[in-house]
C-alpha cells in the first residue's frame, strides 16, 4: 500500500490507526522523510529515495484531483478549512508512522488570523524543528515574535519577512545555521549572542563600528565561538574603519570548504583569534549593496 492508502485507512477508526501503526511503523520509520508546508496550499510531502507522495489541501474546488509521474504522486483535496485538514493528516502521519517533520515551510501571509493557532499546533506536535523556513510579505511582526518565542529549531532557520526596523524580538541563538533576508531589525547585541555555526544577515542596519566591535569580540574569544561562516550585508559603501585596531594581514587566494560553503576567495584580510583560529575577511560590492564574508579556518 502507498502512503496515501495507509493515511486514509488509519483515519477510518482508532482501531485501524492502531493496526496501521503496528504494521507500517517498523517499515516506514527511519526510511521515509516528511516535509510540510503552509502557503497557498497546506500539505505534506512524504519521501522515500527518489519517490515523493504529496498530499495537499486546496481552497479552490476545480483543483481537487490526483496526478502522478514517474517519481511522484500528488493528491489534492478541496476543503473549506485547509488548516484542519492539514492537522488531521499530520497527526495521522506522525502518530501512525512515527515520522517527524524534516523541513517545514510556513508562509504567514496566508490565513493571517490562523497564524497563532498554527504555531500552537506546531509546538504540540514536535519538540524541535530540523529545518524551518518562515516567510511573510505582510507585516506580521507580532505573529513572528510569537512563533520564535514558542518553537525550537536545531539545524536551519530561514526568515524572510519585512519586519519593522525598530521592532524588538529575540532571535534563536543556538540554531546551527541562521539566514535572515531582511535583517535591519537585528541589533549588535543580538549578533554577539548567537552561537550559530553559520550566520547570514542580509540588508542589516549595522554600522562600521558595530561590525568592528563584533570582529574584536570574536578575536578576543568573547562571542560567536562556534562560528564557521558569516555573511553580513550593509548599506554603507566604504569599508574603511571596519578593521581599525584589529591586527590583520593580506590573505592569499584560497579555497574554503566546510559544511556551509565551498568557494575560492581570491583576496581579503586575515585576522586571528587569541586561540590561534584564523578568519578570512572578504568584502563584496554589488549594485547599491555591500557585504562582508567571514570564513573561519
Automatic annotation (TrEMBL):
Residues 170-232 form the Sdz-33 F-box domain. InterPro entries: F-box_Sdz-33. Pfam families: FBA_2 (PF07735). This is Sdz-33 F-box domain-containing protein.
